[in-house]
Structure to design on (255 residues):
């Protein structure tokens, strides 16, 4: 049986754990499964209510039936599949080995404190990935080089604005505008200019929120799923606005 203070500490850990997963781009059902799995290893029953911005966690001690509730705002973290995988593995390790709370905190802190990928490395990887999209859509080598350069500039602007915590809708509009403006230089060359301009903004497409929104709706978390889909579609609209501004400035006939 857990004492009231122990129950409070368990709730605090589970809330921190679920917040990290939810804010890092994990679909709702997985967050609930992982959190409840850790709860079972600590002999508590966990009930959760998840929304896009807030989370409510209720922890009930199985023996005493004492309940502790806590509410928290879900922060936004960078999407990291590696982090999500390691946190999911931690839930299985806790369940299989019945790890105590102190050990769970130590392992959790080690996971989230691991060094992230260097922003410069991320910048070039995104550039190569977007140039590959250009190749998939039939762009020639000149167009690929232009898209690579446009992506570097657009993504760097995005990184700088995100560090300054500028509104993310404005970030997407400006990043799309910058990348497509650079890519529009292809119009002065004999190359696949239309493909270069169209693919220069693909690095901004919010694939993870779109996918999570569909998964949430399919698995019954309709409210969270619809919210995620709406936010993702708004980001797609911002991309379209930035690209449309370039087309109107450079070559209105493409609209």
């Amino acid at each position: 049986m857990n004492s009231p203070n122990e129950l409070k500490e368990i709730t605090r850990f589970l809330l921190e754990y679920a917040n990290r997963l939810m804010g890092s781009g994990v679909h709702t059902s997985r967050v609930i499964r992982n959190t409840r799995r850790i709860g079972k290893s600590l002999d508590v029953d966990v009930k959760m209510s998840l929304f896009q911005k807030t989370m409510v966690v209720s922890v009930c001690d199985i023996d005493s039936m004492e309940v502790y509730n806590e509410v928290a705002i879900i922060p936004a973290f960078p999407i990291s599949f590696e982090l999500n995988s390691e946190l999911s593995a931690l839930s299985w390790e806790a369940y299989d080995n019945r790890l105590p709370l102190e050990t769970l905190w130590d392992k959790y802190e080690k996971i989230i404190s691991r060094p992230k990928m260097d922003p410069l490395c991320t910048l070039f990887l995104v550039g190569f990935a977007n140039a590959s999209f250009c190749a998939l859509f039939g762009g020639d080598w000149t167009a690929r080089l232009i898209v690579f350069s446009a992506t570097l500039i657009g993504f760097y602007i995005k990184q700088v604005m995100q560090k300054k915590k500028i509104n993310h809708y404005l970030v997407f509009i400006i990043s799309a505008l910058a990348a497509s403006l650079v890519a529009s230089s292809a119009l002065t060359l004999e190359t696949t200019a239309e493909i270069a301009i169209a693919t220069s903004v693909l690095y901004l497409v919010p694939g993870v929120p779109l996918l999570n929104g569909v998964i949430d709706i399919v698995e019954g978390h309709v409210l969270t799923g619809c919210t995620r889909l709406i936010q993702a579609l708004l980001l797609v609209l911002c991309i379209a606005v930035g690209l449309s501004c370039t087309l109107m400035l450079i070559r209105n006939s493409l609209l």
